[in-house]
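Worked Example 4.2. Read the sequence first, then its structure tokens.
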Amino acid sequence: MSKLRQRNKEARKPPVLTPKEKKAAKKLKKQDTTAPRIIPR
């Protein structure tokens, strides 16, 4: 149970992106705004 709770806590935290990832995300956003948001694990 505690593990599940821990995972939920992690999921709630916004993912920390490197500048490179941020740029890629921006490009993806421009390309396709209908794509569902993918949360990297």
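Now turn to a second chain, presented in exactly the same format:
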Amino acid sequence: MTLNELAQEYLASRLTSILDEHAITGFFVEATTEYAGWAQLQSLVDSANPVIDGQCVITLSEWAVIKPLAYLLCEKETALMHELSKMMSHEPAGRSSSEIENDITNFRNEYFRQWAFNYPCASI
């Protein structure tokens, strides 16, 4: 599936969303780019022009590792928008952006190291 298709799927699975498809795709691209720093994307192995954008194809196993960070990035942006709406007497519900940022930091520090990074074995 492409990142654009995954963004459409994300929007379709929500009752409401403050974020538009373009913003969600941007967060999915950001998470995929970070994943690519730890592991090689299958669709870019033999590609002459390895670009990660909305048209980038990722496998289900890659998405299983990328998805939590992508969703956390979307959740953080939504929380920031809710917090900004306090000026209009709106009381935000859910987690704060700082709580989500802590989860993102933990995810980046631990999860990718455990699940995305691999190095081929070599014998001497």
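Notes for the reader: Residues 3-115 form one domain. The chain has one domain: 3-115.
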